[in-house]
What does this fold into?
Amino acid sequence: MFKIKDHTMGRRKDHSREELTELAIDAGRTLVIEKGPAALTARNVARAIGYTPGTLYNLFESIDGLIAAINIRSMETFARTIREVMRRETSTSAQLRGIARAYLDFHQESPHLWSLLFASPLDYHSEAYREAIHGIFDQVLEATEPLSADPDTARRKAKVLWSTLHGICLLQDSSKLNVGQQDPPETLVNEFLNQFLRI
Amino acid sequence: MFKIKDHTMGRRKDHSREELTELAIDAGRTLVIEKGPAALTARNVARAIGYTPGTLYNLFESIDGLIAAINIRSMETFARTIREVMRRETSTSAQLRGIARAYLDFHQESPHLWSLLFASPLDYHSEAYREAIHGIFDQVLEATEPLSADPDTARRKAKVLWSTLHGICLLQDSSKLNVGQQDPPETLVNEFLNQFLRI
DNA sequence: AATAAATATTGAACAATGTTCAAATACTAT
DNA sequence: ATAGTATTTGAACATTGTTCAATATTTATT
It folds into this structure.
């Protein structure tokens, strides 16, 4: 016999709260990867995990909370990638070029995830979010330190590098009909780094 | 006697099509300036000009069309500003610093307009939009030309400069809780330009 | 001047969004 | 067993963008 439920259901406990949160983040991530940030709706995510929108609001305080969770995951992955770069490369220039390379790879391989993280205004900003940002930025800072005497300059240099990477990828996306000729992001990043690494 | 209209109204012709378009753009612009991009809704704009949403769809093919029109106006204003800079300054470095200054001013004085233009993904892209972009970018290109031998390098340099300005302002906005210390955009742009202008 | 055609405007509707919440259910501790 | 707590739902609400038949007005034609 099949259970036909013609009224509201109560607790199912198919998954723990933590498992459910994981499921939601994964489903949301997949939606973003496959159909872009616009497909990340409460109903789409809920359908993907076999629950209703209301359940999501038991896990996240709002849809922005889910976005933040997905972004944090992206940042953690990226932080691991550049940690690897920092360990592999010994020279400052190789480290910085490696970080830039990793950034461009992320943008190219997961454009929608990149877009959700860097090209969609979000004012959620939990403590976990702040930490995830630091997980990345502190390493960039570490890499720019040898380039300058005082730490203030190092921080400024790190921010400039980071800003330029952002900007170049944004420009790339916004110019489907391009300004003049098509310059691949790598070319622009190279142009920048050649100057940036010149003492 | 007051005309009470209890059914659908027809043509009023209070304004010409062109006047109405102007009214809509102006009202939309004001809404964005005062309440941010999120306030730019069809109903808000319609109410502000004393019409209904349907009328807007007679003027623009979609809400993105209205956004594009507002952005084009922002770009035209900015193009005029840097044209003034280009005329006033004679040295390359002064021109580039002037352009950067103007960009930061725009970001600081009209953060919401800046956000609508540069920080909100939009895939409208009419011919008029392309032209407005060129009205700005061609001048940046003109300014970077003396910095490099071949035109390809000049174009790349212009794009790098432009990307960095974008990125720095984005970073500024996204970091209400800041990464490390607060670095004013001017400081970062200076850090960048000092390196950029070094031959 | 009368009539026809074109245009402008509306209100009402549609689908989709985020979000809330009482009701109902199932699990947990007593 | 019973009471209490946590979870899940469905239905609702307000807001989006957008469409469109109906209507009113202006313009063109006869």
Residues 1-6 of chain A have pLDDT under 50 and may be disordered. Chain A has nine helices and no strands. The interface with chain B takes residues 115, 119-121, 123, 125, 130, 133-134, 137, 141, 152-153, 155-157, 159-160, 162-168, 170-171, 173-174, 176-177, 179-181, 183, 187-188, 191-192, 195-196, 198 of chain A (CB under 8 Å). Residues 7-13, 41-43, 53-54, 57, 62-63 of chain A lie near DNA strand C (CB under 10 Å from a C1').
